[in-house]
Design brief:
216 residues; four-stranded antiparallel β-sheet; globular
């Protein structure tokens, strides 16, 4: 995958490549948003890019402190083109980001057989594909989660629901980040990142939707 070395060596950054990923050319270029956690630093990011065999060049386009947009020129010969392969198999890539040290994505397929075919391809090239959740477009669950999944990543929503169920948001708090992480099978720091980003995104969304009525 593009940037596989970068995400596997940096746990305190989040990368979000622009979609769709145009990776079929000999030297594909993708604009990628990179967000730093408080513990991260740009020197580590630049070093990871320089060591990543899938990266030809990485140039900073905008810099707003803890967030940058990079123009990344990939070396197509050094990577397996999963996004294009998925598209050719009838799978629509909706969102792509790194979840800790692995890639995570939201996909849309006509039916489950498309995912099965893509899973077989992943096995052939030595990649592991893990499907966390499936939704039917007309299911009650999909309708009930339409708003949060539209503005949050699946990982953020899952972490916030798990934290709520565990009692992390109770007063007094009855569960720690470590305990929530154990339930999800991830680290406490990863849970904290997802909850902070998810909370900030939901507050920003609600404020933008209701700012006018609040001022009245």
């Amino acid at each position: 995958m593009p940037l596989n070395h970068t995400i596997s060596s940096l746990e305190d950054v989040v990368l979000r490549p622009d979609l769709p990923l145009h990776t079929e050319s000999e030297r594909p270029t993708v604009f990628t948003t990179v967000e730093l956690e408080p513990s991260g630093d740009w020197e580590s990011v630049e070093r990871a890019f320089s060591e990543d065999e899938t990266v030809g060049d990485a140039h900073v386009m905008t810099d707003s402190g803890r967030k940058r947009i990079y123009r990344i020129d990939f070396d197509r010969s050094a990577m397996t083109d999963f996004p294009t392969k998925a598209a050719n198999m009838g799978i629509h890539l909706l969102e792509l980001w790194n979840d800790g040290t692995v890639w995570a994505a939201r996909l849309r397929a006509v039916d489950q057989s498309y995912l099965s075919e893509f899973g077989s391809y992943c096995n052939e090239v030595g990649a592991e594909l893990s499907i966390r959740r499936l939704y039917l477009p007309d299911s009650a669950e999909a309708m009930n989660t339409a708003l949060p999944t539209a503005i949050l990543t699946e990982a953020q929503w899952e972490a916030m629901v798990e934290a709520f169920d565990a009692g992390y948001f109770d007063e007094p708090r009855t569960a720690s980040l470590s305990e929530v992480g154990e339930r999800l099978g991830i680290s406490a720091s990863a849970v904290g990142r997802r909850i902070r980003r998810g909370t900030a995104t939901m507050i920003e969304y609600l404020m933008s939707e209701h700012r006018g009525s609040l001022r009245r």
